[in-house]
Automatic annotation (TrEMBL):
Recorded superkingdom: Bacteria
Region annotated Disordered, chain positions: 171-192
Protein name, as recorded: MFS family permease
Parts of the chain that traverse the membrane: 6-29, 49-67, 79-96, 128-151
Keyword Transmembrane helix set for record: yes
Chain intervals with Low complexity compositional bias: 174-192
Keywords: Membrane, Transmembrane, Transmembrane helix
Keyword Lipid biosynthesis among record annotations: no
Length: 192
C-alpha cells in the first residue's frame, strides 16, 4: 500500500510539473509576441523608448503614451509623463496585489487600462477601445496580441505605402510634361 501511494504522489507531481511547464511556455510566447507587436506599434508611432515594450511595467509606459490624442486632448499632457504615471500607478497597484494575492489579475487589469489608448487609436472609437480592453482581461491578454498585430499591420500599411510612393517618385525619371501624372500611368516614362 505504501509504494502505491508514493507512485501516485510522484505521478501527480510529474503531471503538475508538466502542466506548469506548459503554462510557462504559453506565458513566455504571450510575452514575446505582445512585446514584439507593441514594439512595432511604438516604433511606427514614434513613442519614447519603444524597447520598453519587452519589460513588464514598460508596457504601461508605452500604453500611457498612446492616451495623448486618442483618449485625452492632443498635447494636453506630455506623453512621456502620461506613460510614467501609468508605469508608477501600475507598479503601486501590483505591489498592493502582492499582499492581496491577485497578482496576475491586477497586472492584467492595469495592462488593459494602459492599452485603451492603443485600442482606441486602432478602432477610432473610445467605447469600442474600452470593450476591447475588457476582452483583453477575459482572454488573459490574448486579445492584446491580436489587436497589436492588426494595429501594427495597419500602421505599416499606412506609413509604409506613403514611404513607398515617396521613394518611387524620387526614383522615376520625370519628363517635362509627366510631373503631374499618376505613378501607375502607362505613359509616364514614354518618349512621344
Amino acid at each position: 500500500m505504501g509504494w502505491e501511494f508514493i507512485a501516485l504522489f510522484f505521478g501527480a507531481a510529474a503531471l503538475g510539473i508538466f502542466i506548469l511547464f506548459i503554462i510557462f511556455i504559453i506565458g513566455l510566447l504571450k510575452w514575446l509576441l505582445q512585446g514584439y507587436f507593441l514594439f512595432r506599434v511604438s516604433e511606427i508611432k514614434d513613442y519614447h523608448l519603444p524597447w520598453l515594450s519587452f519589460i513588464p511595467f514598460g508596457t504601461f509606459y508605452i500604453g500611457g503614451q498612446a492616451y495623448d490624442g486618442n483618449i485625452l486632448k492632443k498635447n494636453s499632457f506630455d506623453p512621456k509623463h502620461l506613460g510614467l504615471a501609468f508605469a508608477i500607478i501600475g507598479l503601486v497597484l501590483y505591489l498592493m496585489g502582492l499582499s492581496i494575492g491577485d497578482l496576475v489579475i491586477t497586472y492584467l487589469l492595469m495592462e488593459s487600462v494602459a492599452f485603451i489608448g492603443i485600442f482606441t487609436a486602432y478602432v477610432k472609437q473610445p467605447v469600442i477601445g474600452v470593450l476591447l480592453a475588457l476582452l483583453n482581461v477575459v482572454t488573459a491578454g490574448i486579445a492584446a496580441i491580436v489587436i497589436l498585430f492588426l494595429c501594427s499591420r495597419k500602421l505599416r500599411n499606412e506609413h509604409g505605402s506613403d514611404a513607398f510612393y515617396q521613394e518611387e517618385s524620387t526614383n522615376t525619371f520625370h519628363n517635362n510634361s509627366s510631373s503631374d501624372s499618376h505613378p501607375n500611368d502607362p505613359n509616364l516614362n514614354r518618349d512621344i
